[in-house]
Specification:
Largest sheet: 6 strands, mixed
Number of strands: 19
Oligomer: single chain
Strand content: 15-25%
């Protein structure tokens, strides 16, 4: 189980530094705070209570999901946006009301000031209050991410021989998605990447009609979703025998990824983890071919805080119990691409790997009878 009911008190402590209450409009944040999974809703976190306003589709669902999560909140229905904001505005007169600045448009802010919250003591923009609390995962969250990772690994294990049958990228991606569903996932955690041959040099290539053939490096970047939580993993396999350059690419990225994993621990600089990977690739002469950051957080979203990159603030560090990826890559259009990625639970002593599929690039080879 997850301690969903314990999250709002932690948020209130963060809100109290600048406001008296917080209007949460990011649906992922609402889910994290309450357990509600609907596609529309607004949550008002007050000093001693919470108010969740939903439309007519979600009244019963919201009540049932909050009860199942052990969360106490008043659930009200508003059939229109105006009626929903009437409920919210009436609940916070005289309070300094925080709002999620990244979620509110200029037009919405205008209406908040002029119409929706005329009685509040002030509107206070906030930045990432809930997102920062989501960084450190509780045991239930880690269990869900690890279960999703296990499903993804099992799906690849069961389908790996298909890579030798010359499927198209799109065919193999679809089979991988369906197999994850058969094994218990609610779906893929993002659009599955199957990038073969020259397409592997495009880090976020979308699977297409190209057939996977002998001599290809195949980049497989995919994940499963379990109870809303995502897994993320990349493996690069070679069909047949690699060329000398392809083998060197595999060796360099394998060494870079291992160095990055070794650098992950509580308090480690996000820039330093990126540098641990990047320095090895630069030394190999391929610095320009590593065109993205080293990693990112994983949880209810496939990309969330923290970011592990050369471009983040120098003070950014890894928190205990955060889940981050380490995924260096080398992309050479004439040879293909190589990326290797694991999702890691950060600990004071280092990290615990949550993704366990083999990294052997010859893994798809048919077993001997």
């Amino acid at each position: 189980p997850m301690d969903v009911a314990g999250r709002a008190p932690r948020l209130r402590a963060a809100v109290a530094e600048g406001a008296d209450s917080l209007l949460v409009t990011n649906l992922v944040n609402i889910r994290w705070l309450t357990g509600f999974t609907g596609s529309a809703g607004r949550l008002l976190v007050l000093p001693d209570s919470m108010l969740l306003v939903v439309d007519g589709r979600y009244g019963d669902q919201a009540t049932q999901q909050l009860a199942a999560a052990g969360v106490e909140a008043d659930v009200r229905i508003g059939l229109t946006a105006a009626s929903q904001y009437e409920h919210l505005g009436a609940a916070c007169p005289g309070l300094r009301l925080g709002f999620e600045a990244e979620q509110v448009t200029v037009a919405e802010h205008r209406d908040m000031v002029a119409t929706w919250f005329p009685l509040v003591a002030g509107l206070v923009p906030t930045d990432g209050l809930v997102e920062q609390l989501r960084v450190a995962k509780d045991d239930g969250e880690v269990a869900r991410i690890e279960a999703a990772a296990a499903i993804a690994s099992a799906a690849l294990d069961q389908l790996r021989q298909r890579l030798l049958d010359e499927p198209t990228e799109a065919e193999f991606g679809l089979e991988l998605d369906m197999q994850m569903r058969r094994l218990g996932a609610t779906g893929p955690s993002f659009e599955t990447i199957v990038a073969s041959g020259p397409n592997g040099a495009k880090p976020h290539h979308r699977p297409g009609g190209r057939r996977i053939v002998a001599g290809d490096l195949v980049v497989l970047d995919f994940g499963a979703k379990v109870d809303g939580y995502c897994s993320d993993m990349t493996r690069t396999v070679v069909v047949g025998s690699p060329s000398l350059t392809q083998q060197r690419m595999l060796d360099v990225v394998t060494a870079a990824q291992a160095a990055g994993v070794a650098a992950v621990r509580e308090g480690a600089s996000c820039r330093a983890v990126d540098a641990a990977c990047r320095d090895i690739i630069v030394a190999a002469g391929w610095g320009d071919a590593f065109s993205h950051g080293t990693g990112h957080g994983v949880g209810l979203e496939i990309h969330e805080d923290p970011r592990v990159s050369f471009s983040v603030d120098e003070a950014a560090t890894l928190a205990d119990r955060s889940v981050v990826t380490v995924e260096p890559g080398v992309y050479l259009p004439e040879h293909g691409g190589v990326r290797i990625e694991d999702s890691l639970l950060v600990t004071p002593a280092g990290s615990r790997c949550l993704t366990h599929a083999p990294k052997d690039p010859a893994w798809p080879s048919r077993p001997t009878t």
